[in-house]
Design the sequence.
C-alpha cells in the first residue's frame, strides 16, 4: 500500500471527528509529493464536503 492509499484509509477511519480529520489530512499532505497532494485534496473535498461546512 502506498502513502496515497494509506492516507485515504486513515482519513476514512478518523472521519467521525472533524479535529482529528484535519490533523490527519495535514499529516498526510506532508508525506506526499505535489501531484499526490493535489489528488488527495480533490478526493478529500469530494468525500468530506459535508464535514467541511459543519462546525
Sequence:
Amino acid at each position: 500500500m502506498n502513502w496515497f492509499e494509506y492516507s485515504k484509509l486513515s482519513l476514512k477511519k478518523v472521519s467521525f471527528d472533524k479535529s482529528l480529520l484535519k490533523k490527519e489530512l495535514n499529516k498526510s499532505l506532508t508525506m506526499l509529493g505535489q501531484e499526490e497532494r493535489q489528488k488527495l485534496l480533490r478526493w478529500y473535498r469530494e468525500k468530506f464536503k459535508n464535514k467541511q461546512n459543519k462546525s
